[in-house]
Design a protein that fits this description.
Structural class: alpha/beta
Number of strands: 15
Distance between the termini: 21 Å
Shape: elongated
Largest sheet: 6 strands, parallel
Order of helices and strands: EEHEHHEHHEHEEEHHEHEEEEEHE
Radius of gyration: 22 Å
Number of helices: 10
Strand order of the largest sheet: 1-4-3-2-5-6
Helix content: 25-40%
């Protein structure tokens, strides 16, 4: 898969594609249904699949810290899109210049001159252009005039419930990792490169691998039983803490993960952490001794959860439920995913 950063990096080889536009935060199963639509048309036309995304996401640009937490960093999103058969991603910087484009200018510069779109798939509630004046009807009219077709996204339901990034965020906040995994189509995970920190964990008998987080609202905050995957394929039961470490203080949010029964150097390596069960919220303790005592309790509880899960022959206790009844139709525009541009 090829990442194209900005319109100025588009080349003739990128023109002529089927495309969709949105944040695709988390690349959940509703997004996956959209990508399946794209693959169907791409196969029939013999052209590549293209996804147009924005950095920052539009709601982050306008709302700042009040924007919804991200489900996935750009790097992870690109990996997930590539896994779904996307050929190219056009990442547009969302700034004053882009937001000032009229709907007609967006169609002309991005879709026609830039990508040479053959077929476009968007929600029929999709809005774009300056003051969000562009809509699905405008795209259809432009397509007839400029030579591309437009199709609305199919409804995707899981157990009668619409899959959306908003719903996934709510499930994560409640600690429901089983339903989160079912909506994503895979366990929710966080990844990053391990960095050196103050190494406080070592002084209290709990060494941790530290993964800095973005200075943005977080989908998770607190202490969790988790599993950690190493680049070499090894997997370790773990306890992870994500947040601001109020007892010792932190300049930025960080993910700390303590791998059970691991002895080695992880600095500089990429680590993937899969939260499995929430143990508690983020708390401030009266000193290091109280923090150490609580950490020991957290570890004991996590080990107990993993032991019980293995008795039940379930390695990822709250993130591996089998997929249940689902539906994907295109009959009812009223049921279309409202957060195609939100998620």
């Amino acid at each position: 898969m090829q990442l194209i950063r900005g319109l100025h990096n588009l080349r003739e080889v990128h023109r002529g594609c089927v495309a969709t536009i949105g944040n695709f935060d988390g690349v959940h199963r509703g997004h996956q249904a959209i990508l399946e639509q794209l693959r169907e048309h791409a196969g029939a036309l013999g052209v590549p699949v293209c996804v147009v995304v924005f950095e920052p996401q539009p709601r982050e640009f306008f709302a700042g810290d009040q924007a919804p937490p991200r489900l996935s960093r750009l790097r992870d999103k690109l990996q997930l899109l590539g896994d779904q058969g996307v050929d190219q991603v056009l990442c547009l910087p969302f700034n004053d210049a882009l937001r000032s484009l009229t709907a007609d200018e967006f169609i002309a510069r991005v879709l026609v001159e830039g990508l040479g779109v053959r077929h476009l798939v968007v929600g029929d509630d999709f809005r774009f252009g300056c003051d969000r004046r562009g809509d699905f009807s405008l795209l259809q009219r432009a397509g007839v005039k400029l030579g591309f077709t437009v199709e609305h996204t199919r409804t995707f339901l899981l157990d009668g419930e619409r899959v959306s990034s908003t719903r996934v965020r709510t499930l994560l906040a409640s600690g429901n990792f089983a339903q989160t995994a079912r909506m994503l189509g895979h366990p929710y995970q966080l990844s990053g490169r391990v960095v050196r920190d103050r190494q406080l964990g070592r002084t209290i008998g709990t060494p941790t691998a530290n993964l800095p987080q973005l200075q943005r609202p977080m989908a998770l905050k607190g202490v969790y039983a988790a599993v950690a995957d190493l680049p070499d394929g090894q997997r370790f039961d773990s306890v992870m803490n994500i947040g601001w470490r109020p007892t010792v203080g932190s300049e930025r949010p960080i993910l700390e993960v303590h791998l059970f029964d691991f002895d080695g150097d992880l600095y500089g390596q990429r680590l993937t952490v899969i939260p499995c069960a929430k143990l508690r919220g983020e708390m401030k303790f009266d000193g290091i001794d109280a923090l150490r005592t609580q950490i020991q309790r957290d570890q004991q509880r996590a080990r107990q959860l993993f032991a019980e899960a293995r008795v039940a022959q379930d390695i990822l206790p709250l993130a591996s439920a089998p997929l249940a009844r689902e539906a994907a139709t295109s009959d009812s525009p009223a049921d279309l995913p409202a957060d195609h541009d939100d998620g």
